Predict the structure of Dephospho-CoA kinase.
Amino acid sequence: MSTPYIVFLTGGIASGKSLVGRYLETLGAVRIDLDELYHEILASDTLCRQQLVTSFGVEILSQGAIDRQALAHKVFGDPYTLAELERITHPFVFCALKSRIQELCVCSKSSSSQRMIVVEVPLINKVSEVSYLADEILALIAPLKARFRYAQVRGLSREQMCARMRAQVGNSLLCHKSDTLILNAGSVTMLKQHVKAWYLSRMKRIGKGL
């Protein structure tokens, strides 16, 4: 069995990235969410916690654990403190990602089911250090009107949505950094049809060893 085909799945907030990631999981892919890895590290990695407290103070702690909301409040909207947060946490996240992929690659040698690994990447411009792991970068592009509608369903106000969008890359950079684009401009059913067609084409390519 060859090593799994690794896809970095990216897109702006409320573009449908998580929906697509979960759908690919139902089709047979193994999903890794970088946000979830980050949360796991904040919750369990003692060294990371010590470094964060040194940089941001004990006020980011709640009962000895990192208070994610307090930490986010410290860095949101401040590029300097955000850069410091990334300097501390990214090495831990990237190390965890490489370890998780390595474990799955080992498992794939004894299983035919783990043929694709999909890594959900919130900010594709922040992962250049591990971009070599990806066989393909797949980006979702959605019209602004649709994204605001999805955000509202998630409980985000228009102001919150705009603030988060300002912190992310635009569609032009997504297009530049991605190998494949999927437009999410219709129904969920239509989106799933596009994603399934893409998935099946990659499975066919993997089966041929291309």
User: Anything to note?
Assistant: The CA atoms of residues 10 and 121 lie 5 Å apart. The first helix runs from residue 17 to 27. The chain has one domain: 5-208. The beta strands are 5-11, 30-33, 61-62, 65-66, 116-121, 136-141, 180-183.
